[in-house]
Amino acid sequence: MGVYAMTGGATGIGAALKARLQSSGHDVICVDIRDADIVADLSTAEGREHAVAEVRARAADGLDGLIPCAGVPPVTQPLSLIARVNYFGVVAVVEGLKDLVAKRRGTVLLVGSNSAPMVTGDDSYVQACLDGDEDKACADIDARDGHTAYAGSKRALTMWMRRQVVAYAEMGVRINAVAPGITRTPLSEKVMSDPTLGQLMRDFADSVPWGGTAQPDQIASVMAFMLSEAADFVCGSVFFVDGGSDAMMRNDDF
Ligand code: NAI
Predict the structure, then answer these.
(1) Would you name the residues annotated as active-site residues?
(2) Considering only CA atoms, which of 58, 55, 65, 57 is closest in space to residue 24?
(3) Which segments of the chain have a pLDDT < 70?
């Protein structure tokens, strides 16, 4: 059975995926800010280094899969925390562990969002993320709004993933992203209860073609497939699992 490392497995989508992997007999090393094998704050350089070092110590023979799932919602303050966790924390963990994944010709599965296409790729914040300039990205986004902070972090992460595909494949790592729509987790509950974004999110959920919101396991089941041998020619792909909302908003783009 395989050895997987993941972040953000304490609740929500990550917890559902962790349960699925474990019930299939895999070992799962979980990093989270709480309730985890390795407790680390991925918003900080020290936390990221601690997470990487501890995973390396536990998985010296390599990883079959790496799933950086930890994320924070658009209602997080300061907004720069969204950039730090959702983009820079993810990239640092993946870059710090990619050689362990290569060792087993394994796979990295990022968690994007169906909100990612709502911010353009040439946005200054997205570009600062892609340039690896954390100070600039944080200063830029602290002066803006939560939607841009969140969707922009996922836009940058998805673009980063696509840009790594060739180099990672040459290294022996298959990298992909899942792009969930609204999923019933502590993260989305925080947005739903926000006085401003809550109503927008409920209206958005009402517009989803296949109906409403997902349960975490409806995302985790697709992620488990993307990690599995059955998906071993899936490389550089973004799987929207969003009840059809991306197709509704961007008919002709794919
Ligand atoms: P969640 O809040 O249930 O899980 C997020 C996990 O990340 C938690 O276990 C939390 O403790 C951990 N975390 C947060 N900050 C951290 C930090 N600084 N260091 C380490 N761990 C930290 O949320 P959910 O919904 O399960 O989110 C999982 C992923 O799915 C996130 O990347 C999120 O952006 C993404 N997503 C969620 C959607 C939704 O509607 N729930 C929609 C699209 C994407």
Answers:
(1) 150
(2) 65
(3) none
Does residue 178 have its Cβ closer than 6 Å to ligand 1?
Answer: no
Give the position of tokens 């990022």: 110
pLDDT at position 70 is: 98
pLDDT for 20 equals 98
Nearest-angstrom CA–CA distance, 14 and 19: 9
Q: Hunting for tokens 């841009």 — which residue is that?
A: 148
Residue type, 39: V
Q: Report helix angle 216-227 to 12-23, nearest 10.
A: 50
Instruction: Give one word for 132, left, alpha or beta, with left for phi > 0 and alpha for psi -120 to 50.
Output: left
Whether 72 is in the pocket of ligand 1, judged by its Cβ within 6 Å, is yes
Over the Cα atoms of the chain, what is R_g? 17
Quick: pLDDT tens for 90-121: 999 999 999 999 999 999 999 999 999 999 99
Q: Provide the residue ranges of all domains of the chain, joining segments of one domain with +.
A: 3-249
Give the ipTM: 0.99
Residue 132 CA to ligand 1 center (angstroms) comes to 22
The CATH number given to 3-249 is 3.40.50.720
For the record, the structure tokens of 254 come out as 């794919």
